[in-house]
Design a protein that fits this description.
By secondary structure, the protein is an alpha/beta fold. The protein is 41% helix and 16% strand. It has two domains: 153 residues, 3-Layer(aba) Sandwich (Rossmann fold), CATH 3.40.50; 110 residues, Rossmann fold (3-Layer(aba) Sandwich), CATH 3.40.50. The chain binds D-glutamic acid (DGL). The site of D-glutamic acid has 17 residues, from α3.
């Protein structure tokens, strides 16, 4: 299907994906700003975390999930995962007929607008940090004093529903201390799991540091894109939300209730390749 054929597709859903529940922080903003939109969300919980994996592997997983979303007839998609954005965009966007937005460009644009003194900290996964995509995107916007810190424990805390308390506080302190020592004035939540820890993060960062959640900006950019292409769904009825997971559907249902305050329909997602055919026994004829 060509990009031109999308003009009559306003009622089709927007697709979102993440390694787990992190992208629900983007869904949360989308539900507030564009409540009429129908949403399909894919959580690759069975293969989470993405942060420690090689970029090529994360790109392959992302491609599988975008195919799954394509099968649901999405009119646009958001890679609601910084690690997957770093590993797959812009390259993968060329392979799909619908527009695909990612987190990093949006996060960098929001940070460049927000910073007063030009000193920006990024907290993210190991994969996002290693990619160097945030410093690159910020440098292109004229912000060159950028420090990154990998925080692999934080997405796991969010998956376990530990959004406050001593364990979360200690983990956040460990991540922020090196950045606070640099005198940053702006902190980018460079992993979509982190907005769910914003209470603890702002407590540790203190009042002098502006927190940037790239979800706000990516949803604004999605709104502009849908508007420009005549793809906005106009309805007084709220749109539906369907969640899919490669993990335990019941667990994602509970987490959606905790993180979104909403009872969502959850099913098992079929994007992972099926079990491989067993290798033939030695001596067996082919
Ligand atoms: N939510 C993902 C991100 O924005 C990462 C979590 C993971 O390591 O899987 O990068």
């Amino acid at each position: 299907m060509s990009k031109a054929d999308f003009s009559h597709r306003a009622s089709c859903p927007v697709g979102l994906m993440d390694s787990g529940v992190g992208g629900l922080s983007v869904v949360r903003v989308l539900r507030q700003r564009l409540p009429a939109e129908n949403l399909v969300y894919a959580a690759d919980t069975g293969r989470m975390p993405y942060g420690p994996r090689a970029a090529a592997e994360v790109c392959r997983f992302t491609s599988q999930i975008l195919r799954f979303l394509e099968g649901h007839g999405v009119k646009a998609a958001v890679i609601a995962c910084n690690t997957a954005t770093a590993a797959s965009l812009p390259g993968l966007a060329e392979e799909f007929p619908f527009p695909i937005l990612g987190m990093i460009g949006a996060g960098a644009r929001a940070a460049a607008r927000t910073t007063r003194g030009g000193r920006v900290g990024i907290i993210a996964t190991r994969g996002t940090v290693a990619s160097g995509e945030y410093p690159r995107a910020l440098a292109a916007l004229g912000v060159t004093e950028v420090w990154q810190e990998a925080c692999p424990e934080l997405p796991l805390l969010v998956e376990e529903g530990e959004l406050a308390g001593e364990r979360a506080l200690a983990a956040v302190r460990g991540c922020l201390e090196p950045l606070l020592a640099r005198g940053i004035d702006t902190l980018v939540l460079g992993c979509t799991h982190f907005p769910f820890l914003a209470g603890v993060i702002s407590r540790v960062a203190g009042p002098g540091i502006a927190l940037v959640d790239p979800a706000e900006e990516v949803v604004r950019e999605l709104e502009d894109l849908l508007e420009a292409r005549g793809l906005r769904r106009e309805s007084a009825e709220p749109g539906w939300l369907k969640l899919y997971t490669s993990g335990e559907p019941e667990r994602l249902r509970q987490m959606a209730r905790l993180l979104l305050g909403e009872a969502a329909e959850v099913s098992r997602g079929g994007w992972m390749p099926g079990p491989q055919a067993p290798a033939p026994e030695r001596g067996e004829s082919p």
